[in-house]
Specification:
Length: about 450
Protein backbone atom coordinates (compact mmCIF):
# COMPACT_ATOMS: atom_id res chain seq x y z
CA UNK A 1 0.00 0.00 0.00
CA UNK A 2 1.30 3.41 -0.93
CA UNK A 3 1.77 5.81 1.98
CA UNK A 4 0.62 9.44 1.90
CA UNK A 5 4.19 10.60 1.62
CA UNK A 6 4.81 8.28 -1.29
CA UNK A 7 1.87 9.82 -3.07
CA UNK A 8 3.47 13.24 -2.89
CA UNK A 9 7.05 12.55 -3.78
CA UNK A 10 9.16 15.55 -4.77
CA UNK A 11 10.73 15.90 -8.13
CA UNK A 12 14.19 14.39 -8.50
CA UNK A 13 17.06 16.75 -7.80
CA UNK A 14 19.05 17.84 -10.88
CA UNK A 15 22.33 15.92 -11.36
CA UNK A 16 24.37 19.03 -10.61
CA UNK A 17 22.60 19.48 -7.28
CA UNK A 18 23.13 15.81 -6.44
CA UNK A 19 26.85 16.12 -7.14
CA UNK A 20 27.14 19.37 -5.17
CA UNK A 21 25.33 17.84 -2.20
CA UNK A 22 27.53 14.75 -2.20
CA UNK A 23 30.70 16.86 -2.31
CA UNK A 24 29.43 19.01 0.57
CA UNK A 25 28.62 15.88 2.57
CA UNK A 26 32.05 14.38 1.88
CA UNK A 27 33.90 17.59 2.78
CA UNK A 28 31.98 18.22 5.99
CA UNK A 29 32.21 14.63 7.23
CA UNK A 30 35.90 14.32 6.33
CA UNK A 31 36.83 17.35 8.40
CA UNK A 32 34.37 16.44 11.15
CA UNK A 33 35.76 12.92 11.49
CA UNK A 34 39.31 14.24 11.23
CA UNK A 35 38.62 16.30 14.33
CA UNK A 36 36.92 13.45 16.14
CA UNK A 37 39.63 10.92 15.27
CA UNK A 38 42.67 13.02 16.11
CA UNK A 39 41.46 13.11 19.69
CA UNK A 40 41.57 9.29 19.75
CA UNK A 41 45.05 9.30 18.21
CA UNK A 42 46.28 11.88 20.71
CA UNK A 43 44.73 9.84 23.52
CA UNK A 44 46.72 6.79 22.37
CA UNK A 45 50.01 8.62 21.80
CA UNK A 46 50.10 11.67 24.09
CA UNK A 47 47.36 12.17 26.66
CA UNK A 48 48.26 9.02 28.61
CA UNK A 49 51.69 10.51 29.38
CA UNK A 50 50.79 14.21 29.66
CA UNK A 51 47.39 14.68 31.27
CA UNK A 52 46.83 11.18 32.71
CA UNK A 53 50.30 9.93 33.70
CA UNK A 54 50.41 7.36 36.54
CA UNK A 55 52.82 4.69 37.71
CA UNK A 56 50.94 2.13 35.58
CA UNK A 57 50.93 2.34 31.79
CA UNK A 58 47.67 0.35 31.67
CA UNK A 59 45.91 2.68 34.12
CA UNK A 60 47.17 5.74 32.21
CA UNK A 61 45.86 4.31 28.95
CA UNK A 62 42.49 3.45 30.53
CA UNK A 63 42.12 6.97 31.93
CA UNK A 64 43.02 8.48 28.58
CA UNK A 65 40.65 6.27 26.60
CA UNK A 66 37.86 6.92 29.09
CA UNK A 67 37.78 10.51 27.84
CA UNK A 68 37.54 9.16 24.28
CA UNK A 69 34.41 7.28 25.31
CA UNK A 70 32.84 10.44 26.73
CA UNK A 71 32.54 11.83 23.21
CA UNK A 72 30.59 8.77 22.14
CA UNK A 73 28.20 9.08 25.07
CA UNK A 74 27.46 12.64 23.95
CA UNK A 75 26.79 11.63 20.35
CA UNK A 76 23.20 10.36 20.85
CA UNK A 77 22.36 13.61 22.65
CA UNK A 78 23.66 15.53 19.66
CA UNK A 79 21.64 13.24 17.41
CA UNK A 80 18.45 13.83 19.40
CA UNK A 81 18.82 17.61 19.41
CA UNK A 82 19.81 17.71 15.75
CA UNK A 83 17.00 15.34 14.82
CA UNK A 84 14.46 17.66 16.41
CA UNK A 85 15.89 20.67 14.59
CA UNK A 86 16.64 18.91 11.32
CA UNK A 87 13.14 17.45 10.97
CA UNK A 88 11.54 20.82 11.77
CA UNK A 89 13.85 23.40 10.20
CA UNK A 90 15.91 21.58 7.60
CA UNK A 91 19.00 19.45 7.05
CA UNK A 92 21.33 22.25 5.94
CA UNK A 93 21.26 24.57 8.98
CA UNK A 94 21.88 21.66 11.34
CA UNK A 95 24.82 20.49 9.24
CA UNK A 96 26.34 23.99 9.23
CA UNK A 97 25.90 24.39 12.98
CA UNK A 98 27.53 21.01 13.67
CA UNK A 99 30.55 21.89 11.54
CA UNK A 100 31.05 25.19 13.37
CA UNK A 101 30.72 23.57 16.81
CA UNK A 102 33.28 20.90 15.91
CA UNK A 103 35.78 23.42 14.54
CA UNK A 104 35.65 25.57 17.67
CA UNK A 105 35.78 22.68 20.15
CA UNK A 106 38.65 20.89 18.42
CA UNK A 107 40.80 23.98 18.02
CA UNK A 108 40.34 24.77 21.72
CA UNK A 109 41.66 21.31 22.65
CA UNK A 110 44.95 22.44 21.17
CA UNK A 111 45.08 25.18 23.81
CA UNK A 112 44.44 23.01 26.88
CA UNK A 113 47.21 23.96 29.34
CA UNK A 114 49.68 21.49 30.79
CA UNK A 115 48.93 22.62 34.32
CA UNK A 116 50.07 21.43 37.73
CA UNK A 117 46.43 21.37 38.84
CA UNK A 118 45.77 17.69 38.10
CA UNK A 119 42.01 18.18 37.76
CA UNK A 120 41.99 21.19 35.43
CA UNK A 121 43.27 19.78 32.13
CA UNK A 122 41.16 16.59 32.32
CA UNK A 123 38.07 18.68 33.09
CA UNK A 124 38.66 20.95 30.11
CA UNK A 125 39.39 17.96 27.87
CA UNK A 126 36.20 16.18 28.90
CA UNK A 127 34.11 19.31 28.31
CA UNK A 128 35.53 19.86 24.84
CA UNK A 129 35.25 16.15 24.04
CA UNK A 130 31.55 16.35 24.94
CA UNK A 131 31.23 19.22 22.45
CA UNK A 132 32.92 17.07 19.81
CA UNK A 133 30.47 14.28 20.50
CA UNK A 134 27.49 16.61 20.24
CA UNK A 135 28.82 17.94 16.92
CA UNK A 136 29.39 14.49 15.40
CA UNK A 137 25.99 13.32 16.61
CA UNK A 138 24.37 16.30 14.92
CA UNK A 139 26.48 16.25 11.78
CA UNK A 140 26.11 12.62 10.68
CA UNK A 141 22.39 12.72 10.06
CA UNK A 142 22.60 16.07 8.30
CA UNK A 143 25.34 14.96 5.93
CA UNK A 144 23.72 11.61 5.11
CA UNK A 145 20.32 13.18 4.41
CA UNK A 146 21.79 16.04 2.38
CA UNK A 147 23.43 13.40 0.17
CA UNK A 148 20.63 10.81 -0.03
CA UNK A 149 17.66 13.16 -0.30
CA UNK A 150 19.32 15.01 -3.18
CA UNK A 151 20.14 11.77 -5.01
CA UNK A 152 18.21 10.07 -7.82
CA UNK A 153 16.33 6.99 -6.61
CA UNK A 154 18.48 4.47 -8.48
CA UNK A 155 21.75 5.93 -7.15
CA UNK A 156 20.88 6.69 -3.54
CA UNK A 157 23.40 4.17 -2.23
CA UNK A 158 26.18 5.62 -4.36
CA UNK A 159 25.54 9.27 -3.51
CA UNK A 160 24.81 8.46 0.12
CA UNK A 161 28.18 6.75 0.44
CA UNK A 162 29.94 10.08 -0.10
CA UNK A 163 28.80 11.18 3.35
CA UNK A 164 30.50 8.05 4.66
CA UNK A 165 33.75 8.86 2.86
CA UNK A 166 34.52 11.13 5.77
CA UNK A 167 35.40 8.11 7.89
CA UNK A 168 38.48 6.89 5.97
CA UNK A 169 39.41 10.38 4.72
CA UNK A 170 39.23 11.73 8.26
CA UNK A 171 41.56 8.99 9.48
CA UNK A 172 43.97 9.65 6.60
CA UNK A 173 44.06 13.38 7.30
CA UNK A 174 44.50 12.79 11.01
CA UNK A 175 47.31 10.30 10.54
CA UNK A 176 49.06 12.55 8.01
CA UNK A 177 48.90 15.39 10.52
CA UNK A 178 50.41 13.27 13.29
CA UNK A 179 52.98 11.66 10.99
CA UNK A 180 54.23 15.09 9.94
CA UNK A 181 54.22 16.23 13.55
CA UNK A 182 56.34 13.26 14.64
CA UNK A 183 58.64 13.48 11.60
CA UNK A 184 59.62 17.12 12.06
CA UNK A 185 59.78 17.28 15.84
CA UNK A 186 61.80 15.55 18.51
CA UNK A 187 59.91 13.12 20.78
CA UNK A 188 60.19 15.65 23.60
CA UNK A 189 58.85 18.52 21.50
CA UNK A 190 56.04 16.34 20.14
CA UNK A 191 54.80 15.47 23.63
CA UNK A 192 55.28 19.02 24.90
CA UNK A 193 53.53 21.08 22.22
CA UNK A 194 53.71 19.81 18.62
CA UNK A 195 50.74 17.45 19.15
CA UNK A 196 48.60 20.59 19.42
CA UNK A 197 49.11 21.62 15.79
CA UNK A 198 46.69 19.02 14.29
CA UNK A 199 43.97 20.40 16.57
CA UNK A 200 44.58 23.99 15.49
CA UNK A 201 44.27 22.95 11.83
CA UNK A 202 40.58 22.24 12.38
CA UNK A 203 39.82 25.97 12.08
CA UNK A 204 39.80 25.40 8.32
CA UNK A 205 36.30 23.99 8.84
CA UNK A 206 34.84 27.45 9.39
CA UNK A 207 35.07 28.57 5.73
CA UNK A 208 33.70 25.15 4.71
CA UNK A 209 30.67 25.79 6.92
CA UNK A 210 30.18 29.20 5.29
CA UNK A 211 30.35 27.67 1.81
CA UNK A 212 27.73 25.04 2.68
CA UNK A 213 25.47 27.73 4.09
CA UNK A 214 25.98 29.95 1.06
CA UNK A 215 25.82 27.53 -1.85
CA UNK A 216 23.91 24.38 -0.80
CA UNK A 217 20.14 24.25 -1.16
CA UNK A 218 17.78 22.48 1.21
CA UNK A 219 16.80 18.98 0.09
CA UNK A 220 13.66 18.65 -2.08
CA UNK A 221 12.30 15.87 0.09
CA UNK A 222 12.47 17.97 3.27
CA UNK A 223 10.80 20.88 1.46
CA UNK A 224 7.97 18.58 0.38
CA UNK A 225 7.54 17.21 3.92
CA UNK A 226 7.61 20.72 5.40
CA UNK A 227 4.98 21.91 2.90
CA UNK A 228 2.77 18.96 3.75
CA UNK A 229 3.13 19.62 7.49
CA UNK A 230 2.32 23.31 7.03
CA UNK A 231 -0.87 22.41 5.19
CA UNK A 232 -2.13 20.20 8.02
CA UNK A 233 -4.10 21.98 10.76
CA UNK A 234 -3.19 19.70 13.65
CA UNK A 235 -0.33 20.49 16.02
CA UNK A 236 2.83 18.75 14.91
CA UNK A 237 4.33 16.33 17.41
CA UNK A 238 7.96 16.30 18.42
CA UNK A 239 9.92 14.30 15.78
CA UNK A 240 11.89 12.61 18.57
CA UNK A 241 8.82 11.29 20.40
CA UNK A 242 7.07 10.56 17.14
CA UNK A 243 9.85 8.31 15.87
CA UNK A 244 9.98 6.53 19.24
CA UNK A 245 6.24 5.92 19.00
CA UNK A 246 6.14 4.84 15.39
CA UNK A 247 9.50 3.16 14.75
CA UNK A 248 11.12 1.86 17.97
CA UNK A 249 11.99 -1.46 16.38
CA UNK A 250 13.75 0.17 13.44
CA UNK A 251 15.84 2.30 15.81
CA UNK A 252 16.91 -0.65 17.97
CA UNK A 253 17.68 -3.01 15.10
CA UNK A 254 19.65 -0.32 13.27
CA UNK A 255 21.68 0.28 16.46
CA UNK A 256 22.23 -3.44 16.97
CA UNK A 257 23.32 -3.96 13.37
CA UNK A 258 25.73 -1.02 13.49
CA UNK A 259 27.44 -1.67 16.83
CA UNK A 260 29.92 -4.24 15.54
CA UNK A 261 31.15 -1.89 12.82
CA UNK A 262 31.91 0.92 15.27
CA UNK A 263 33.62 -1.43 17.76
CA UNK A 264 35.60 -3.04 14.95
CA UNK A 265 36.66 0.31 13.55
CA UNK A 266 37.84 1.92 16.79
CA UNK A 267 39.48 -1.22 18.07
CA UNK A 268 41.45 -1.25 14.81
CA UNK A 269 42.50 2.38 14.43
CA UNK A 270 42.97 3.18 18.13
CA UNK A 271 43.16 0.04 20.25
CA UNK A 272 45.64 -1.69 17.97
CA UNK A 273 47.80 1.46 17.83
CA UNK A 274 48.04 1.50 21.61
CA UNK A 275 48.90 -2.22 21.76
CA UNK A 276 51.65 -2.33 19.17
CA UNK A 277 53.31 0.94 20.21
CA UNK A 278 53.16 0.34 23.96
CA UNK A 279 53.47 -3.43 24.38
CA UNK A 280 55.19 -4.54 21.15
CA UNK A 281 57.68 -1.71 20.65
CA UNK A 282 56.65 -0.72 17.13
CA UNK A 283 57.44 2.90 16.20
CA UNK A 284 54.55 5.35 16.15
CA UNK A 285 55.35 6.45 12.62
CA UNK A 286 55.31 2.88 11.33
CA UNK A 287 51.94 2.10 12.87
CA UNK A 288 50.34 5.34 11.72
CA UNK A 289 51.70 4.82 8.21
CA UNK A 290 50.01 1.44 7.89
CA UNK A 291 46.74 2.76 9.30
CA UNK A 292 46.98 5.55 6.72
CA UNK A 293 47.66 3.10 3.87
CA UNK A 294 44.73 0.92 4.92
CA UNK A 295 42.36 3.89 4.97
CA UNK A 296 43.59 5.07 1.56
CA UNK A 297 42.66 1.59 0.28
CA UNK A 298 39.27 1.99 1.94
CA UNK A 299 38.41 5.30 0.25
CA UNK A 300 37.50 3.94 -3.22
CA UNK A 301 35.85 0.87 -1.69
CA UNK A 302 33.23 2.95 0.15
CA UNK A 303 31.52 4.45 -2.94
CA UNK A 304 31.97 1.17 -4.81
CA UNK A 305 30.03 -0.75 -2.17
CA UNK A 306 27.48 2.08 -2.03
CA UNK A 307 27.01 1.69 -5.79
CA UNK A 308 26.85 -2.10 -5.39
CA UNK A 309 24.03 -1.71 -2.87
CA UNK A 310 22.03 0.05 -5.59
CA UNK A 311 22.42 -3.10 -7.69
CA UNK A 312 22.12 -6.04 -5.30
CA UNK A 313 20.53 -4.53 -2.18
CA UNK A 314 21.56 -2.63 0.94
CA UNK A 315 20.92 -5.43 3.40
CA UNK A 316 22.99 -7.90 1.42
CA UNK A 317 26.05 -5.66 1.17
CA UNK A 318 25.78 -4.56 4.80
CA UNK A 319 25.34 -8.18 5.89
CA UNK A 320 28.43 -9.23 3.95
CA UNK A 321 30.36 -6.65 5.97
CA UNK A 322 29.09 -8.11 9.26
CA UNK A 323 29.94 -11.63 8.12
CA UNK A 324 33.42 -10.56 7.06
CA UNK A 325 34.04 -9.03 10.49
CA UNK A 326 32.87 -12.23 12.14
CA UNK A 327 35.28 -14.35 10.09
CA UNK A 328 38.27 -11.98 10.21
CA UNK A 329 38.15 -10.76 13.83
CA UNK A 330 40.11 -13.48 15.63
CA UNK A 331 42.76 -14.04 12.91
CA UNK A 332 43.19 -10.28 12.69
CA UNK A 333 43.98 -9.84 16.37
CA UNK A 334 46.27 -12.86 16.41
CA UNK A 335 48.19 -11.22 13.56
CA UNK A 336 48.36 -7.90 15.42
CA UNK A 337 49.75 -9.69 18.49
CA UNK A 338 52.40 -11.35 16.31
CA UNK A 339 53.77 -7.99 15.13
CA UNK A 340 57.00 -6.36 16.30
CA UNK A 341 59.61 -3.72 15.43
CA UNK A 342 61.18 -6.00 12.81
CA UNK A 343 57.99 -7.85 11.95
CA UNK A 344 55.38 -5.35 10.80
CA UNK A 345 53.78 -7.42 8.04
CA UNK A 346 51.26 -9.18 10.34
CA UNK A 347 49.92 -5.80 11.44
CA UNK A 348 49.74 -4.63 7.82
CA UNK A 349 47.82 -7.74 6.73
CA UNK A 350 45.47 -7.38 9.70
CA UNK A 351 44.46 -3.78 9.01
CA UNK A 352 44.27 -4.18 5.23
CA UNK A 353 41.85 -7.07 5.68
CA UNK A 354 39.91 -5.05 8.23
CA UNK A 355 39.22 -2.09 5.93
CA UNK A 356 37.60 -4.31 3.30
CA UNK A 357 35.12 -5.58 5.90
CA UNK A 358 34.55 -2.07 7.21
CA UNK A 359 33.98 -0.60 3.74
CA UNK A 360 31.15 -3.05 3.06
CA UNK A 361 29.23 -1.57 5.98
CA UNK A 362 30.45 2.01 5.76
CA UNK A 363 29.43 2.41 2.12
CA UNK A 364 25.91 1.21 2.84
CA UNK A 365 24.88 2.18 6.37
CA UNK A 366 23.86 5.80 5.81
CA UNK A 367 21.39 5.05 3.03
CA UNK A 368 20.18 1.85 4.68
CA UNK A 369 19.29 3.63 7.91
CA UNK A 370 17.79 6.68 6.17
CA UNK A 371 15.44 4.45 4.20
CA UNK A 372 13.96 2.98 7.36
CA UNK A 373 12.14 6.21 8.25
CA UNK A 374 9.74 8.62 6.51
CA UNK A 375 11.16 12.11 5.84
CA UNK A 376 9.24 13.97 8.54
CA UNK A 377 11.05 11.92 11.25
CA UNK A 378 13.99 10.62 9.23
CA UNK A 379 16.68 12.83 10.77
CA UNK A 380 15.64 11.78 14.28
CA UNK A 381 15.26 8.10 13.45
CA UNK A 382 18.45 7.60 11.46
CA UNK A 383 20.52 9.63 13.93
CA UNK A 384 19.19 7.73 16.94
CA UNK A 385 19.84 4.33 15.38
CA UNK A 386 23.38 5.26 14.40
CA UNK A 387 24.36 7.19 17.53
CA UNK A 388 22.98 4.70 20.06
CA UNK A 389 25.42 2.16 18.65
CA UNK A 390 28.17 4.75 19.10
CA UNK A 391 27.77 4.60 22.88
CA UNK A 392 28.93 0.98 22.86
CA UNK A 393 31.48 1.57 20.10
CA UNK A 394 33.03 4.47 21.95
CA UNK A 395 34.23 2.17 24.67
CA UNK A 396 36.07 -0.05 22.17
CA UNK A 397 39.57 1.37 22.88
CA UNK A 398 38.91 1.21 26.63
CA UNK A 399 37.62 -2.37 26.45
CA UNK A 400 40.47 -3.37 24.15
CA UNK A 401 43.05 -2.22 26.68
CA UNK A 402 41.17 -3.90 29.53
CA UNK A 403 40.83 -7.24 27.67
CA UNK A 404 44.48 -7.33 26.63
CA UNK A 405 45.69 -6.02 30.02
CA UNK A 406 49.21 -5.32 28.80
CA UNK A 407 49.78 -8.87 27.49
CA UNK A 408 49.68 -9.26 23.68
CA UNK A 409 48.89 -12.94 24.15
CA UNK A 410 45.41 -11.83 25.23
CA UNK A 411 44.66 -10.06 21.96
CA UNK A 412 42.43 -12.92 20.78
CA UNK A 413 39.89 -11.83 23.39
CA UNK A 414 39.16 -8.71 21.36
CA UNK A 415 38.50 -10.89 18.34
CA UNK A 416 36.02 -13.01 20.27
CA UNK A 417 34.14 -9.90 21.40
CA UNK A 418 33.82 -8.78 17.77
CA UNK A 419 32.59 -12.23 16.72
CA UNK A 420 29.76 -12.02 19.27
CA UNK A 421 28.80 -8.50 18.14
CA UNK A 422 28.91 -9.53 14.46
CA UNK A 423 26.56 -12.44 15.12
CA UNK A 424 24.17 -10.03 16.88
CA UNK A 425 24.43 -7.65 13.92
CA UNK A 426 23.40 -10.35 11.47
CA UNK A 427 20.40 -11.18 13.64
CA UNK A 428 19.36 -7.51 13.83
CA UNK A 429 19.76 -7.15 10.09
CA UNK A 430 17.22 -9.92 9.58
CA UNK A 431 14.77 -8.08 11.83
CA UNK A 432 15.07 -4.74 10.02
CA UNK A 433 11.89 -3.86 8.19
CA UNK A 434 11.96 -4.56 4.47
CA UNK A 435 9.74 -1.61 3.71
CA UNK A 436 11.45 1.45 2.21
CA UNK A 437 9.37 4.52 2.83
CA UNK A 438 10.48 7.07 0.31
CA UNK A 439 12.25 7.89 -2.88
CA UNK A 440 14.04 11.18 -3.37
CA UNK A 441 13.07 11.12 -7.03
CA UNK A 442 9.79 11.38 -8.83
CA UNK A 443 7.71 8.18 -8.95
CA UNK A 444 8.68 7.56 -12.55
CA UNK A 445 12.27 7.12 -11.47
CA UNK A 446 11.43 4.36 -9.02
CA UNK A 447 12.25 1.44 -11.25
CA UNK A 448 13.10 -2.16 -10.55
CA UNK A 449 16.33 -0.99 -8.94
CA UNK A 450 14.21 0.33 -6.06
CA UNK A 451 12.97 -3.13 -5.23
CA UNK A 452 16.43 -4.61 -5.55
CA UNK A 453 17.95 -2.11 -3.12
CA UNK A 454 15.21 -2.88 -0.58
CA UNK A 455 16.38 -6.46 -0.14
Amino acid sequence: MQSDADAALPEAAPPRRSARASVAAALSTSLEWYDFFIYSTAAALVFNTTFFATDSAVVSALNSFATVAVGFIARPIGGIVAGQLGDKYGRKPVLVGAVVLMAVATSLIGFVPATQAVWLAPTILVTLRVCQGLAVGAQWGGAVLVATENAPAHLRGYYGSFAQLGVPIGVVLGNVAFLLATAFASPEAFVTWVWRIPFWISLVMLPIAFAIHRYLEETPEFRAAAAKAAAQPQVRRSPFFEVLRRNPGAILTAAGANTVGIVFFYATITGSVQLVTTSLGVARSTVLTWILIACVVMIPLVPFFGWLSDRIGRKLVFGLGSAAMLVWAVPMWLLIAASGPDRIWPFAVAVLGAVVAMALQTGTQGTLFAELFPPEIRFSGASLGYQISAIVGGFAPFVTVALINGDPANAWRVGVLIVVLAAAALLCLQLISRRRYHSTAAPAAATGTEATAAR
